[in-house]
Amino acid sequence: MPEQKPWDETTGSGAISGAGAGGGMDLAMDEGTTLEKTPGGPEGTGPAGKPRSLWSDAWRDLRRNPVFIISSLVILFLVIISIWPSLIADQDPLDCDLSKAQEGSQPGHPFGFDGQGCDVYTRTVYGARTSVTVGVLSTLGVSLLGGVLGGLAGFFGRGWDAVLSRITDVFFGIPVVLGGLVFLSVVTSSTVWPVIGFIVLLGWPQIARIARGSVITAKQNDYVQAARALGASNSRMMLRHIMPNAIAPVIVVATIALGTYISLEATLSYLGVGLKPPAVSWGIDISAASQYVRNAPHMLLWPAGALAVTVLAFIMLGDAVRDALDPKLR
Amino acid sequence: MGRYVIRRLLQMIPVFFGTTLLIFLMVNVMGDPIAGLCGDRQCDPATAAQLRTEFGLDKPVWQQYLTYMGNIFTGDFGTAFNGQKVTELMATAFPITIRLTIVAIVFEIVIGISLGVVTGLRRGRPVDTVVLILTLVVIAVPTFVTGLLLQLLLGVEWGIIKPSVSSEAPVDELIVPGLVLASVSLAYVTRLTRTSIAENARADYVRTAVAKGLPRRRVVVRHLLRNSLIPVVTFIGTDVGALMGGAIVTERIFNIHGVGYQLYQGILRQNSQTVVGFVTVLVLVFLAANLIVDLLYAVLDPRIRYA
Question: What are the domain boundaries of chain B?
Answer without folding.
Answer: 86-300
